[in-house]
Amino acid sequence: MEHIIVIGGGVVGLTSAWWLLEAGFRVSLVERASHVANGASYGNGGQLSYRYVSPLADAGVPFKAIQWLFQEHGPLRFKPELDMRQWTWLASFLGQCNTTDNRRTTAKLLQLGELSRAGMNELGAIVSPEDFDWRDAGKLVVYRSPKIFEQAAGKATAGDIWSGAECAAREPALAAARHLLAGGIYNSGEAVADCHAFCTALAERIRTHPRFGGFVQAEVTRMAASGGRVTGLETSAGPLGADAFVLAAGIQSRNLAAQVGVKLPLYPLKGYSLTAPIRATDTAPEISVTDFERKVLYARIGDKLRVAAMVDIAGEDLSLPPKRVDSLQRQVRETMPHAADYDRLEAWAGLRPATPNSAPIIGASPLSNLWLNVGHGPLGFTFAAGTARVLSDLMQGKAPPFALDMLALGR
Fold first, then answer.
1. pTM of the model
2. Domain FAD dependent oxidoreductase spans what residues (predicted)?
3. What is the mean pLDDT of residues 165-175?
4. CA–CA separation, 8 vs 371, rounded Å?
5. How would DSSP label each residue in 224-254?
6. 359: which DSSP letter?
C-alpha cells in the first residue's frame, strides 16, 4: 500500500488526506502547529460561495487599486518589498487583468465550485453539519453605486435582483444602511460555516481511519530531492520518508517547493476578520452578505458574527495594525450597527496563498512523487473538497472530472 505524506493541516491538507485515505492510500499528515487549522483556515470569512466566484484580476482593477490606496478606509494596502517574488507576482497579476482571462478563469472556478459543493455534501455524511455550524444561508451581494449595480445586474446570469429597499426588507440587519444601497443580487444555495470547527471535526474522523498513519506535529525544515524525486523530509521531529508527498501547506508551500527547484507562483494576500458574539437583542444577518465596493463580507456562524475584509500586499506579515482593525470596525458599525456585541470583538489576520489569476494549482509537479494542492487564496474553504477530489483522481491515475488547463502548475 503506497504511503503518502500530506504537508499541511489546514482545510486543504485535511480534505486531501481524507480523499486519499478513501482511495486506498496509507496517509500521514505533518502540521507544524499544535492544532489543525491554525493558519489561514482559522478565522476566514466562513462563506462557501460556489456560484459567486470573482477572480481578483479583472479589467479595471489596476485603476481601482490606485484609488483604494488613497482611500482612508480602502480595502487595499501595498507595502513594497525587496523581494522579487512580490514584483514577479504583481507583474503576472497585472497581465491577468483583462476581461478575456477573467471570464476563462471564472468559468473554470465555477466548475470547481460545483465539484466542491458535491464534495461537501459527501463529507456531510462523515462530519455532522451541526459540528461546524453549517447553514444554507444564501448569499446577497449589495452595491452602493447605482452605476456599478446596474452593470452587475446586467451581467448576472443567476440570482434574484433586489432594490436597496428590498435588500433591507429581506435582510433586516441592513436596515441602517438602506439609504446607502443601490441594490443587490441574491443567490440561494450558498452556505456559511465555521472552517476551523470543520477542520477539527474532520481531523478526528481522519485520526480513526484504519489507513491513517498518524499526525506528526513538526515543522518541515527541508525537503530533499534526488533523481527527479523527493527523497524525504527533514523536520523538527526528525526525518520522515514516504512513497509520495502532497504539498498543501499554504504560503509555506512556496519556500518548501523552492528547496527542490519547483517555483510556485504564490503570494500571501493578508486578510483580516472580526468575530463578535451575537446577543438575543441583536439583529444579526441571516443571509450571508458581501458589500461589493468595500469588499467586506458578513456571515452569521453559530452564535457569532464573522466579518472579513481587506487585502494587504505586504509579505508574510501577520501583525494586526490598529488602524486597519479600527477602520474595519468603523465600517461594520456603520453598515450593521445592531448585528453583534462589537465591544467584545476579536480581531484576526491570515495569509491567503494566492495565484495571480485566483485559480488554485492542483496536480503533478516536475518531481515524479511530489503533488500540489496550493494557491486557493481566500477560497480555500469553498474549493477544498473539490481540489481534494481532483488530486485523489490524479494520484490514482484517473482522468479528472473536467479539463485542468487553468489549474495545473504549467498553465
1. 0.96
2. 4-394
3. 98
4. 13
5. EEETTEEEEEEETTEEE--SEEEE--TTHHH
6. -
